[in-house]
Write a sequence for this structure.
């Protein structure tokens, strides 16, 4: 696999985390334009841990995701009374506040005669743990997809439990869910924290792959795209947002065909899907149809195998 393909697949994997983060909140009926804030918080926190404090990569990643989760918890409480458009604007305001804080945040230490650390709008350079540890681009891509697989497995497990049913119930009708004894506050906070941690994992991976981050990377468009990926791919399964990321990063951004027209095509695709498939390509009906087909196919395949093994 050449370097360009490795870069494309790595970018798809990293952005998938923020897309899944927005997906978790979409399940509960909330639209967030601010998941890039947790992506940024973890990028800075994990970068500081490895580049400045001398931590190894894995503790640094866990630290970044934990700080992002804590920030999500702090955001959840003041926005609990907000719903719909008010919640969306609240998350956007929070994300812009975080970005502006990083514009003025300076914390540097001298390492081997050089200043390392966040330097306000000049960004944060020298997050070189991956390169100094001789981890190749291919190996790092595998790390990204290992973590992505773990997050997907976690989300699939949730969907099979009462927790997943409650998230979808809140997304369908909060009042009805509360009438059935669901503690809306508890589960909304839980969903927000889970979403923050997932975005945080992606942020830590992004910082270490690129070695340099700056506040303007984490702008509102990153949040808009993360939301759109779920709306394109579908809300019926956690695979949905990955389809959205693959179409945008893997196809529109990474091929020359759409050079200069990426945002036009992407915006048109979102608009068409909102009209004709408001729950995305893999919505609940599509997922149910695929599962029904699989259930029919599986017994038939098992019967065929049994017949083939049976003696004449």
């Amino acid at each position: 696999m050449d370097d360009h393909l490795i870069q494309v697949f790595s970018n798809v994997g990293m952005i998938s985390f923020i897309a899944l983060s927005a997906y978790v909140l979409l399940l509960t009926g909330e639209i967030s334009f601010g998941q890039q804030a947790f992506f940024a918080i973890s990028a800075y926190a994990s970068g500081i841990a490895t580049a400045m404090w001398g931590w190894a990569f894995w503790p640094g990643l866990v630290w970044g995701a934990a700080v992002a989760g804590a920030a999500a918890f702090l955001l959840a409480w003041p926005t609990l009374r907000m719903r719909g458009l008010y919640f969306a604007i609240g998350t956007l305001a929070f994300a812009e506040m975080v970005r502006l804080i990083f514009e003025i945040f300076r914390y540097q230490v001298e390492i081997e005669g050089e200043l390392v650390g966040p330097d306000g709008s000049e960004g944060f350079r020298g997050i070189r743990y991956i390169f100094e540890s001789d981890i190749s681009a291919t190996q790092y891509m595998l790390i990204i997809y290992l973590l992505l697989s773990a997050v997907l497995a976690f989300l699939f497990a949730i969907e099979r439990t009462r927790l997943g049913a409650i998230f979808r119930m809140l997304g369908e009708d909060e009042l009805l869910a509360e009438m059935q004894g669901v503690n809306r506050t508890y589960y909304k906070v839980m969903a927000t924290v889970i979403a923050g941690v997932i975005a945080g994992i992606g942020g830590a991976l992004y910082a270490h792959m690129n070695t340099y981050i700056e506040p303007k990377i984490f702008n509102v468009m990153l949040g808009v795209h993360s939301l759109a990926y779920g709306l394109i791919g579908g809300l019926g399964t956690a695979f949905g947002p990955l389809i959205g990321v693959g179409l945008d990063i893997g196809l529109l951004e990474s091929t020359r065909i759409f050079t200069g027209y990426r945002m036009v095509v992407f915006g048109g695709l979102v608009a068409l899907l909102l009209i004709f498939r408001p729950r995305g390509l893999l919505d609940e009906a599509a997922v149910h149809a695929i599962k029904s087909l699989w259930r029919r196919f599986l017994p038939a395949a098992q019967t065929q195998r049994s017949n083939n093994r049976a003696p004449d």
User: Anything to note?
Assistant: The chain is about 70% helix and 5% strand. The CA atoms of residues 34 and 91 lie 5 Å apart. The chain has two domains: 3-281, 284-312.
